[in-house]
Design a protein that fits this description.
Blueprint (H helix, E strand, L loop, with lengths): L1 H13 L14 E3 L16 E3 L2 E3 L3 E3 L7 H17 L2 E3 L4 H5 L18 E6 L9 H11 L3 E6 L1 H6 L10 H11 L4 E5 L6 H9 L4 E3 L8 H6 L6 H6 L9 H11 L5 E3 L6 H9 L4 E4 L1 H9 L1 H22 L4 H4 L5 E3 L3
Parallel strand pairs: 4-5, 4-11, 5-6, 6-7, 7-8, 8-9, 9-10, 10-11
Antiparallel strand pairs: 1-12, 2-3
């Protein structure tokens, strides 16, 4: 597992792992400029909340890594910067620590991020491979987390050489975890999106927030392609490089059916402007993944600069349409569909 985590980091940094022939769909939307915004830029309020804690901006560092020394170094830089800038943060799958406590250090960032929302992360499919509420609670306690995300990654698992591919009866098992845990439980995809129908089933199971993690960003079938020996999986991966629900469509569909469900947008969100579009479409927060990975590997200063830019871009977009708060941005009629 440690080797796999190391390979994932290396591939995401060195290879082209974006979806092919598919985008997040964000380019289909454009904000209609307001030449008379009637607000003061410095007074724009980007304050938000997640898992019962305040955020300076509605941004989340997506769950990315853990389980290795390099992952620990990345997580510490991400956490320290997120704490300073008021972002939420997820850590990578804590399965490695649940099964080998010697790797738990690589997920522990609460000491340097005492005030921000932090969530633990486990693969939902592990509920079919011996995991239950006890293991989920252990993951939360190891991270000192404010919440747990169960990730759905069916397509990754079938392309992964050592993948777990039994996804039967998970809704009922997710329900049991939601009932048993001491913290809120959410669900995220890993890059292929969540449909409205799937979101309704998750809500019925008791899930308290959803990250659509739509297509348009990292394609994990492409990542796994680079880990596969020459064979069927490697050959077939390119066929599925364009698989998934574009992230913007996933946000719209889930929000239309579950307007009160706390909703995280991710998938091809590479700027504060794109994040603003996601919030205008109905998301409450936006999550960033690979766009933060390279600067985090580079230095804390490089990461801080990228995060500052993302924050400024969000505020600039809000100023450009005259939205003084996130409440005014969400559902704003200034966002127009310009491509069918």
């Amino acid at each position: 597992m440690e080797r796999r985590k190391t390979e994932h980091i290396r591939i995401c940094l060195e290879k082209e792992v974006g979806g092919v022939g598919i985008s997040g769909g964000w380019e289909k939307y454009r904000f209609w400029h307001n030449a008379l915004p009637e607000i003061r830029f410095e007074e724009i309020d980007t304050g938000s909340a997640f898992l019962g804690k305040s955020l300076r901006v509605p941004f989340i560092v997506s769950s990315m890594t853990g389980g290795t020394r390099q992952a620990w170094e990345i997580n510490r830089i991400l956490a320290e910067t997120a704490e300073r800038r008021g972002w939420a943060m997820g850590v990578g799958s804590v399965r490695a620590a649940v099964e080998n406590v010697n790797t738990a250090y690589s997920f522990r960032v609460r000491d340097i991020a005492p005030t921000i929302p932090i969530f633990a992360n486990l693969g939902a499919v592990q509920l079919n491979y011996g995991y239950g509420a006890e293991e989920c609670q252990r993951a939360v306690e190891l991270v000192e987390a404010d919440g747990l995300v169960l990730h759905l990654n069916s397509m990754q698992e079938i392309f992964q050489p050592e993948g777990d591919t039994d996804f039967r009866h998970l809704a009922g098992k997710i329900r049991e975890v939601c009932r048993s845990l001491s913290v809120p439980v959410g669900v995220k995809e890993v890059g292929w999106g969540i449909s409205g129908e799937a979101a309704l089933r998750l809500a019925d199971a008791g899930v308290e927030f959803i990250d659509v993690a739509g297509a348009g960003g990292t394609s994990w079938s492409q990542v796994e392609k680079y880990r596969s020996a020459k064979g069927i999986r490697r050959l077939a991966a390119d066929t599925f490089a364009g698989w998934g629900i574009p992230a913007a469509d996933s946000v719209r569909e889930v929000h239309s059916l579950l307007p009160h469900m706390p909703l995280i947008a991710s998938g091809g969100i590479d700027s504060g402007l794109t994040a603003a579009k996601a919030i205008a479409l109905g998301a409450d927060t936006a999550a960033f993944g690979r766009v933060l990975l390279a600067p985090a590997v580079d230095s804390m200063e490089a990461l801080d600069l990228v995060m500052q830019q993302l924050e400024f871009e969000l505020a600039a977009a809000m100023f450009g349409i005259g939205a003084g708060s996130l409440a005014e941005l969400k559902g704003s009629s200034a966002l127009r569909l310009v491509q069918g």
